[in-house]
């Protein structure tokens, strides 16, 4: 199986979905930029190697170099961002060019960045969703490789919509990562 590293910052429900899915990959490292991320406990409960790295006192390039060195030391060829809420430096993206995937809670190219569900509701959209895409230097802008759609219902709060989309994320992401690996992308 392909050795993958998963990068998280928080809850870790997508990490959990990836870990519990039987695909052509093995999670060899979970990295969090937040030492208190609940997702680290989910990883530990599954016996996955974890690394919590605080960015205090480091600039973006220095921090990302440490993350990248740990990923290479673990022998991971593909990097899967799962709720990783820190911008990646251009140098990191170049170092792992074509080998970094992200899941974003909108139907890209709509609603890059934060507060996607509130923005979709405020716009009067009738559907929302999530997108798996390749990571490039520009935020949420790399090629989309998979999407899932859900309806927006009258009276939905951002929390309602978030829960509906998240259920689709958990289904979509392990499948998209598996397809990406099987189709011979990354290394
Ligand atoms: C997910 O909804 C993911 O799509 C989103 O953060 C959440 C993480 O949840 N990611 C982004 O907004 C990336 N900009 P999780 O920690 O439970 O997987």
From TrEMBL:
Cellular component per GO, a single term: cytosol
Top EC group: transferase
UniProt xrefs under Gene3D superfamilies: Formyl transferase, N-terminal domain
Site, as annotated: Raises pKa of active site His: 140
A Pfam family per the record: Formyl_trans_N
Pathway annotation: Purine metabolism; IMP biosynthesis via de novo pathway; N(2)-formyl-N(1)-(5-phospho-D-ribosyl)glycinamide from N(1)-(5-phospho-D-ribosyl)glycinamide (10-formyl THF route): step 1/1
GO molecular function: phosphoribosylglycinamide formyltransferase activity
Keyword Transferase attached: yes
Keywords, sorted A to Z: Purine biosynthesis, Transferase
Residues the record marks as active site: 104
E.C. no: 2.1.2.2
Residue positions binding N(1)-(5-phospho-beta-D-ribosyl)glycinamide: 12-14
GO biological process, one term: 'de novo' IMP biosynthetic process
Binding site for (6R)-10-formyltetrahydrofolate: 60, 85-88, 102
Keyword rRNA processing: no
Top-level taxon of the source organism: Bacteria
Domain Formyl transferase N-terminal, chain residue ranges per copy: 3-177
Catalytic activity: N(1)-(5-phospho-beta-D-ribosyl)glycinamide + (6R)-10-formyltetrahydrofolate = N(2)-formyl-N(1)-(5-phospho-beta-D-ribosyl)glycinamide + (6S)-5,6,7,8-tetrahydrofolate + H(+)
Similarity annotation: Belongs to the GART family.
HAMAP family on file: PurN
Functional description taken from the UniProt entry: Catalyzes the transfer of a formyl group from 10-formyltetrahydrofolate to 5-phospho-ribosyl-glycinamide (GAR), producing 5-phospho-ribosyl-N-formylglycinamide (FGAR) and tetrahydrofolate.
Matching NCBIfam families: PurN
Protein name per Swiss-Prot or TrEMBL: Phosphoribosylglycinamide formyltransferase
Organism for this UniProt entry: Sphingomonas ginkgonis
Protein's gene: purN
């Amino acid at each position: 199986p392909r050795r993958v590293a998963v990068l998280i910052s928080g809850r870790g429900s997508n990490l959990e979905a990836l870990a519990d899915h039987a695909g052509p990959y093995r999670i060899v490292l979970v990295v969090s930029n937040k030492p208190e991320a609940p997702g680290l406990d989910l990883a530990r409960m599954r016996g996955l190697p974890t690394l919590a790295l605080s960015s205090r006192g480091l600039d973006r390039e220095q921090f990302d170099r440490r993350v990248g060195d740990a990923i290479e030391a673990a022998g991971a060829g593909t990097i899967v961002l799962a709720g990783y809420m820190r911008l990646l430096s251009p140098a990191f993206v170049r170092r792992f060019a074509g080998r970094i995937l992200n899941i974003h809670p909108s139907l890209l190219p709509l609603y890059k960045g934060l507060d996607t569900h509130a923005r979709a509701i405020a716009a009067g959209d009738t559907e929302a969703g999530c997108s798996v895409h390749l990571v490039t230097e520009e935020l949420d802008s790399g090629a989309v490789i998979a999407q899932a759609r859900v309806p927006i219902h009258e009276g939905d709060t951002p929390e309602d919509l978030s829960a509906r989309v998240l259920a689709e994320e958990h289904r979509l992401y392990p499948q998209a990562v598996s397809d990406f690996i099987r189709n011979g992308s990354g290394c």
